[in-house]
Structure formats: C-alpha cells, structure tokens
Here is the input.
Amino acid sequence: MSSQAVTLSGFMPSQNKMPAIADLRNETLFPNFGSCPSEYDVDLGYYHTLDGLYWIPTRHWCLLAEIVEAFIFIRLRLVAKDKDGHKFVIAFYLEPDDTGLRPSDFREGHTVAILYPHQHGFLDLTEGIRQEDIKRIQVIPLSVADVLALSDRVQEQNRPVDGKFACHACGARRESLVVAQEKHLGTNGTQDCQEKGWKEMGHKKDCKVLKDIKGFFTMKWDTFEEFTEFPL
Here is the structure.
C-alpha cells in the first residue's frame, strides 16, 4: 500500500467531528432527470429572488446518470439513464475551443455528472439536457449503482455512532481509526486492519475513485454563493 496513515482524530476538525458528508442518494441535491428544473419555468425548489426580478439558485445540484450510448449527430450526443432508469439525451452545444470531445470520452456504463442541469425540449420533440459548459460535466469511471454503493460506504465509514467510527475492514467501531494520507474519505480501520482493507475489502479501488470525486462529498451543496465547476 503506497499511502501512509494518520489517526482519524488527527484528520478531523476540532472535537473529533467530521464535516457534513453529502449523500449521493439525496434526491434534492442529486435529483433524477424528471426532478431537475425546466429551462422554461422558475422552479421555486431551486431558485429564489430578493427583488422579484433576478432569480438566483437556492443551492447547488448535480444530476448523476449512467451513459448508455455516445455518438455524433451534427454534434456530440449522449443517451443516459438516471438513478431511476429513465433515459434522456444530453446534447453538447460548446464553444469552438471545447469541441475536442469524442464519443470515446464517454464510455458506456460510466457515470456522467452534470452541475445545474435543466430540462430542455429539443426540436425533435425529445427532452434532455442542453450542455453548453464543458466545465460543468465530469465522467466517473463507475456505473451509477457502483457510485451509489460507494456513497453508502462513505456514509457508513464517516458517521460516528456514540462517538465511534466503523472500521473499513472489520466493521468494528472505534474512537480512533486511520485514513489514507491523501485524506480520501474511506477509513482504513486500525493499523492491523489497514492491509486487509486495502487488499481484500476494496479500499484501494475506492481510494482511486475518491481521489477524483472527493469534492462531491465535501462540498456544501445547500449553501450557494456562486456557481462552481469541476473538479469540485
């Protein structure tokens, strides 16, 4: 195992408490396609106004969907399915400098994450996402089911019960565990369990993915100050 380890209590803020960890199953922060706001109406679940004229987001939100197909039809288009299995189209309308994307960049079975998506009606009467900003889209090399399962493990390992945290390898709860030096979210358990967790319990695979998507869990989704972009 390449990473060193530090105690979990040393990784945490004061009073041995973890910051809030986002749950990727949250339907408000990570809505399905049908729950995303429309381009044609103001959705009061996502926007508010101070003067009745200028509307700003109430929070950040992100759509997670599994790539079914990627192809070129005038422009790059994806067919994806959300967490409920509903299929929709993602069509890219990008600036000339951003047109280097290829269908091969979007592998079938991987998850595409889109910040601030809105439902759009295309001229062919289909509904989907009109994606104009390449910095608000990220591909995660896991299926949606695997992304959600990873989220479940992150929740389990980082939520204390009676002040104790779950060991990644054996499941026992202790006040002091160890985490990867890179500060990925998955806990390794005690030093004795660390090797087992890394080799046998999937921690190595989890850490590889968490290195790129840690921001999904640590971002303050409910607090909007300005629009953000990937990487989080």
